[in-house]
Amino acid sequence: MAAAAKEILTRRPVAATIRLTVPAGGARPAPPVGPALGQYRLNLMAFCKDFNARTQKYKPDTPMAVTITAFKDNSFEFTVKSPTVSWYIKKAAGVDKGSTRPGHLTVTTLSVGHVYEIAKVKQTDPFCQYMPLESICKSIIGTANSMGIKIVKDLE
Amino acid sequence: MLAWNFIKHFPCKNLSRHILRDRVRPLCLFTFSTPPSSFSITASLSYSSSSSSSCFTDESFTAPYLSVRIHCPKHVLDPFSEALLCFGASSVTVDEDIDEDAASGSSLVSKEICIELIFPVHEEVKMCISQAANSIGLKEIPKFKVEIGDEQDWITKNQELFQPVEIAEMLWIVPEWTSPPVTEAVNIILNPGFAFGTGEHPTTKLCLLLLQSLIKGGEAFLDYGTGSGILAIAALKFGAASSVGVDIDPLAIKSASHNAALNNIPLEKLELHLAPSEDSSSGREIPLRKQQFDVVIANILLNPVMELADHILSFAKPGATIGISGILSEQLTNIIERYSPFLEDISVATIGDWVCMSGTKKGKFIDN
């Protein structure tokens, strides 16, 4: 109990939380990494080297979702998650952008099977491991709908 | 791991092929299930004078970007941030300080928080924000303000971070705009620009220490992936006869040649070569003879070091020492597997999560 209390007291104060999409193995100090991290005086090259090393196992340029916690002493921590749900949806549906008028204009369709497959992959994300597959599926369907992509039972 | 079995047997298009490089061994996708405290990196802020030194950047670094401040109802912060990233924002930042000021300044508890977004300069900010707001069911689009981002600001801040680093006793890496803290030490003066290698990173330290132990005087050294040129310059300072630095990034070559001048290295001692990058179809080979070097170090990343293994090894004389870094400890087995057929007396040094593997090249040296 005392150890936990001590941990809370010595926890470093947070300056900001930064969320970014960075291509796997392709972090460079240019925008958006540069300005987003540079603003809080974080060591850009250290982040790039670390991020690139940790994402070597992915196909180059796969967009990874990164969350960086910048502390007031200019140190930082980051977690990397699998590509965003919208990226998977676009890849599976074969489209580049979502619809410009979601709800009114359907760009394309995806099957329930695709949703399931994406959900299975997303479930391996940290912090998602205990989420029931059904909730993940619902969230994916929601994102797809907001992109103007309809989910159908089977693709013709 | 079970997920992969499902996906393999599933009749639909196999998405895993789009993501993972290695189809044969489906490794666990995410190694980040450990609590966030595992990747802590410290950097200290330098309060030294302004960095008036020139900065080696190309257009991509000084590219304009859009900086947007937008209000966000606190209760939808997470979904809204996610949605913004989905619909075109490059980054979403929540500044903790702003929240505190707002809370302490007013008697009302603020229901909104101001977040900062970065967009590529050609992005339709208004459309993206309205799509994002729409997708999470916000009734109205929050107020926002768009400005052109000030790149000089963050570039300067980044330069200021760099301060003298003591690698070992009497071995310092010193920024161009600071005077060496210990004048009698071996001081490597650097202006890294945006090339990798300031001496602060564990891999740079590992390689510098390896170099220091290997160079006795008169060696020919190859720095594959030279970045700022730090290793090539260090080798010469330790007594090597000549250094060659190779990199695929023209900025690195620029930075390395500037740093060589800072350290008064004559041109004939330090050669720099721009290596053809993967997509370059010029077929140009680096003009170096095979089996030319006594020490070869490659501090890059796992994939290049694996793909270029034969190439890197080819430049070393038999009996030369090869050092490989830029590798995480979890990636070490891959490297050892790849290089051990060609190296003997393999040893590994570690700092934190990073390792440096070194060994001597097998084969007899044919004295002509």
UniProtKB/TrEMBL annotation, chain A:
Location of the Large ribosomal subunit protein uL11 C-terminal domain: 81-151
Keywords from the UniProt entry: Ribonucleoprotein, Ribosomal protein
All residue ranges annotated as the Large ribosomal subunit protein uL11 N-terminal domain in the record: 18-76
One GO location term (cellular component): large ribosomal subunit
GO MF, one example: structural constituent of ribosome
Family listed: Belongs to the universal ribosomal protein uL11 family.
Name of the protein this chain belongs to: Large ribosomal subunit protein uL11m
TrEMBL record, chain B:
Source superkingdom: Eukaryota
This protein's record includes keyword Nucleotidyltransferase: no
InterPro entries from the UniProt entry: Ribosomal_L11_MeTrfase_PrmA, Ribosomal_PrmA_MeTrfase, SAM-dependent_MTases_sf
Record bears the keyword Plastid: no
Keywords from the UniProt entry: Cytoplasm, Methyltransferase, S-adenosyl-L-methionine, Transferase
One GO BP: methylation
GO MF terms held by the record: protein-lysine N-methyltransferase activity
Gene Ontology CC terms: chloroplast; mitochondrion
Protein name: ETFB lysine methyltransferase
UniProt organism field: Arabidopsis lyrata subsp. lyrata (Lyre-leaved rock-cress)
